[in-house]
Design a protein that fits this description.
The complex is a heterodimer.
Chain A: E1 17-26, E2 31-38, E3 49-55, E4 61-67, E5 76-82, H1 90-96, E6 102-109, E7 123-128, H2 132-144, E8 151-157, H3 166-170, E9 176-182, H4 199-205, E10 214-220, H5 221-233, E11 241-246
Parallel strand pairs in A: 7-8, 7-10, 8-9, 10-11
Antiparallel strand pairs in A: 1-2, 1-6, 2-5, 3-4, 3-6
Chain B: E1 24-25, E2 46-50, E3 56-60, H1 61-66, E4 73-77, E5 82-93, H2 94-98, E6 107-112, E7 117-121, E8 131-136, E9 139-140, E10 150-152, E11 165-171, H3 178-181
Parallel strand pairs in B: 1-5, 2-11
Antiparallel strand pairs in B: 2-3, 4-5, 5-8, 6-7, 6-11, 8-9, 8-10
Classes of the chains: A alpha/beta, B mainly beta.
């Protein structure tokens, strides 16, 4: 990331916007997508996140950051929230908040972990669990723009029941190759034994380093640490490996 | 008038520690960085302070280990909203490293192995406010947390505490670093909630 000054100052995007929940969809047993209608939302880039502020009736408030799941553009913002056991905010968002309820949103934030439709190099997306969310925004932005930039997505997930966006990712999307890497339970008939991401997975399902892809890695800390280390070991230049990490308290 | 999220209860902070606005307490140690973790062999590691006139002061790993160490216990506040109380570190106060440095500069740009950078006013690194930390929780500082050595400036948001620190350049003018160029606040005081430019 040497010399990687990122353009795009936040300017007027810093105020808190009132956001109304207009729709919620279950994505897995423990994750839900929340669709917010945000008055005056300035739009976001694929990969950026927002700050969410919730205020209780007695005035107590809590803030968290969540990646945006939807394609860039428009006044709607979709967040996919994984319920964190014992979390303060995510159980409310993932389970209790109902259409018509209000929250506040601020952002978008982050100019480094983004994919812009002007980029032409191949893209490798490496997702661990709910780290898929900002990468899904990139997949959706690519599709919405009619981009032909080749994408490969490696998605490491415990088992079929934990998959996010399963139906959408199963549909054909020309130029997007999706590989599911199950860590615990795999459906029958898959050649790969369940297990954690290996360098061989990145060789087999990713891009060769000499194609000079931009690699986006997102997931829990241990996963990102390993995946980014493997990519560098396989010859990918560190400045082309962008990472976003979250811990169990991220919710 | 705050917007109420119907049905949100939240969790009131407990204990004697005061949280800066917008923060919550965490008990693990989240990792946030923009790229892969750099791995620097200790026999190649060095730390430099460069002045506005081009003078360079250098320390090898052995030089650093030979300097008097302190063991500060401090609270950490990350711009992503977590705060962690009573973390235990071991490192060298920047007062020690700056002792013989001659400079008229007011600003610093800290740079890291891996290309990261962040800017701080010089006065925020002096008077017992900052360390080059190489120990954490009684052991070595793990690589994902910035080992072998990182800057530790606990009174500012934690992105100012550059991991894998390599050097500090003194300057007569303020120059934004990595996140500051990306829209984060130039100074980053958690108690004034200076998260982004304009806060």
């Amino acid at each position: 990331m040497a010399g990687a000054a990122v353009p795009g100052r936040l300017g007027g995007r810093l105020r808190w916007h009132t956001a109304e929940l207009v729709e919620r969809r279950a994505e897995s047993a423990t994750a839900a997508t929340l669709v917010f209608d945000v008055d005056g939302w300035p739009g976001h880039l694929a990969g950026q996140h927002v700050d969410v502020r919730l205020t209780a009736e007695d005035g107590y408030s809590a803030q968290r950051s969540y990646s945006v799941a939807s394609a860039s553009g428009g006044e709607r913002v979709e967040l996919t929230v994984q319920r964190v056991a014992d979390g303060e905010v995510s159980p409310y968002l993932a389970e209790e908040m109902a259409p018509g309820d209000l929250a506040e949103l601020r952002g978008p934030v982050g100019g480094w972990f983004v994919w812009r439709t002007e980029q032409t190099e191949p893209v490798l997306l490496v997702a661990g669990g709910s780290g898929l969310v900002p990468l899904m925004s990139m997949v959706r932005t690519r599709r919405a723009a009619g981009s032909r930039v080749p994408f490969r997505l490696l998605y490491s997930v415990r088992g079929p029941a934990d998959r996010l966006y399963a139906g959408e990712l199963a549909r054909a999307d020309p130029g997007l190759d999706v590989t599911l890497l199950y860590t615990r339970t795999a459906p029958d008939g898959l050649p790969r034994e369940p297990g954690r991401l290996t360098p061989e997975d990145l060789v087999q399902y990713g891009w060769p380093a000499d194609f000079e892809p931009t690699c986006y890695v997102c997931g829990p800390t241990g996963f990102v640490e390993k995946a980014a280390t493997y990519l560098v070991m396989l010859g990918h230049a560190p400045e082309r490996v962008r990472t976003e990490r979250f811990g169990p308290t991220g919710g | 008038m705050p917007i109420i999220s119907r049905g949100f209860g939240g969790r009131r902070p407990s204990g004697d520690h005061e949280l800066p606005p917008g923060q919550y307490e965490t008990f693990d140690f989240p990792v946030l960085s923009a790229g892969p973790t750099p791995h620097v062999p200790l026999d190649e590691w060095e730390f430099t302070i460069g002045t506005e006139t081009g003078t360079e002061y250098r320390w090898s790993w052995d030089d650093l280990m030979a300097l008097p160490a302190e063991t500060p216990t401090v609270d950490l506040h990350c711009v992503t909203k977590w705060s962690k109380f009573d973390t235990e570190w071991r490192g060298v106060s920047l007062d020690v490293l700056f002792e013989d440095v001659e400079s008229a500069a007011d600003f610093t740009l800290v740079h890291s192995y891996g290309g990261y950078s962040t800017n701080l006013p010089l006065e925020d690194l002096l008077d017992g406010k900052a360390w080059i930390a190489y120990g954490y929780g009684g052991g070595e500082l793990p690589p994902e947390h910035g080992g072998p050595a990182r800057l530790l400036v606990p009174h500012l948001y934690f992105w100012k505490s550059a991991k894998w620190v390599r050097g500090i350049r003194l300057g007569l003018e303020d120059e934004p670093g990595f996140w500051e160029s990306a829209g984060y606040h130039d100074y980053g005081d958690p108690w004034r909630e200076q998260r982004y430019q304009g806060d």
